[in-house]
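To assess whether ligand presence alters the predicted conformation, the chain was also submitted together with magnesium ion. Input:
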Amino acid sequence: MRDVQRVAIVDPSDATREELRKVLLGIESIWLEAECARYEFFFDVISQSSPDVVIVSLDSDQNKAQTLIGQLAQVSPDLPILAASSKGDGQAILQALRNGAREFLTQPVVLEELLKALQRVRPRADAHQNGEANGRGGATPPVQQVISVLGSRGGVGCTSLAVNLGATLAQQAGHSVALVDLDLALGDADVALDLMADYTLADVAMNVERLDMQFLRRSLSKHSCGLSLLPHPVQMEDIGLIREDSLQRIIGLLRASFTHLVLDLSKSFGPTDVTALRSSDVILLVAQLELSSLRNVVRMMQTLNNDAQLAEKVKVVLNGVGGETEITLKKAEETIGKPVYWQLPGDAKLMTESRTQGAPLVLHAPRSKLQLSFAGLAQALCGKEIQAPAKEKSARWGLFARR
Ligand SMILES: Nc1ncnc2c1ncn2[C@@H]1O[C@H](COP(=O)(O)OP(=O)(O)O)[C@@H](O)[C@H]1O
Ligand SMILES: [Mg+2]
């Protein structure tokens, strides 16, 4: 799981403190280090607990709260302070920010707003390390990534890619990865992972208004490789429950609690698929070196190119490469008018075995050529080294790569 942020709160009102406490306790990446009911004791409390972030509620006593913020900012300038109030008083907000608060939260605190604020005050040490490690000094990919896997026809390998990429990413220290099956009618990510889930996307969507992190986390099923799954609805009739606005909220919350989110889309290019594409950082458009798939890539690129924000996220991935009757890579790139980002070799036997056993290749065949290529793809997307299984360290990770 991601690095934990230790939070201390001060709020003399039992009611609002309890409310804030409940929201914080539901966030996995948060450790509620200390709670304090008196402004004048808060200095002592934090000197004993050394939190990463503090939240100061203004409403019980504006003057005391503002003074406390000012003193905290002076004594601990590196400690991010979040001011909170239910009053929407512009002057008080301004004063808190001038006194040294970094962020302002409206009470009752909305989960997404709190997560965003906590994310903004999180030190960027990990990104800094990446920048140095890859020698690009700064322009690093975000730690949080939402990756859509979009197919150019049925059976092109989207679920295989989503599951194996997700599993590969999930094996890395510091990563937490969730896969959402958005092939709402016919998805089979649960089968590929051999998971009997208690909850599905339909349960989450039905409760979307009162969704909190604890409920959302309980709704996910975890595979032994570390990958968490939110499956598609069991009943076909429940597909209608997955509205675009609900999906957007679900993706937003998952984005905030996992380092990587992989979305296995349907082949219908429907409203939920488009919502997923818009919420993604990367769109992996999966194709094969044959006519109907490549023709659909051209058609899909024409549509995606109408929206510059979507078009720039698209990376074409060829799956099952190596057959005898294939169109050449050169011809494929000329046809689609775009370089191919990654090629995954074909290995029908291995893929069938892995799917039948519900064991992603990173567990089933970690040294296979196909898994090395998934690892290379994961590495290319993350912009940082993916640790290979012990004996693989010298293997050529960029296998089949063309970037
Ligand atoms: N790289 C590959 N080499 C060989 N067979 C593959 C490969 N990737 C996927 N397959 C096989 O292709 C079939 C369709 O894959 P799937 O991932 O379900 O596609 P989609 O989700 O796009 O419909 C499955 O039988 C799977 O085992
Ligand atoms: Mg599929």
